[in-house]
Amino acid sequence: MSVYIGEFISLLFLAFALGLDAFSISLGMGMQRFRLKHIALIGIVIGLFHILMPFIGIVLGHVISGQIGNYATLVGGLLLFGIGAQMFFSVFNNQKKRLIQPIGIGLFILAFSVSIDSFSVGLSLGISGVKTALALFMFGLASMILAWGGMLIGRKVHGLIGAYSEILGGSILCGFGLNILFG
């Protein structure tokens, strides 16, 4: 029983870490003062992409894990650590991210770009053999709620904590990668 609780808590933290990317981008978008109906739509689409992308990654991860056998855990840990490090260090990149307008096809491009890191996480989770339905549900729900929260807070705060959320999310992913590698 404690194994299941531990896996649930790990997935909860991982879902939160993946959703922080959507949160930080939503903070900036929230300053554009979208209507609440549009904020709800943006969060739902981002949540759906955070289900779809890791699902594709998990399916590919299952296929790859059958091929590489004993190296599956090593590859999964390295992937998580690499994604986390990329998230962490992207904060210090001096280039400004171009903000895509979340209307029409731009909404799908935005949701895809925010959820692309969850594909890689799904790939590493597929290699390690995680509970697929639970992970996908938690990833989608967390990213949707964090996107909504980010947009609503962005309407009030005007981007005060955007970079710090990326640092936190990257640090959590690095920690999970190191836990898989050495834990």
From TrEMBL:
TM regions (residue ranges): 6-27, 39-65, 71-92, 104-127, 133-154, 161-182
Molecular function GO terms recorded: manganese ion transmembrane transporter activity
One Gene Ontology cellular component annotation held by this UniProt entry: plasma membrane
InterPro entries: Mntp/YtaF, Put_MntP
Alphabetic keyword roster: Cell membrane, Ion transport, Manganese, Membrane, Transmembrane, Transmembrane helix, Transport
One matching Pfam family: Mntp
Annotated localization: Cell membrane
Primary location: membrane
Topology of this chain in the membrane: Multi-pass membrane protein
Function: Probably functions as a manganese efflux pump.
Annotated family: Belongs to the MntP (TC 9.B.29) family.
Protein name: Putative manganese efflux pump MntP
Organism: Virgibacillus indicus
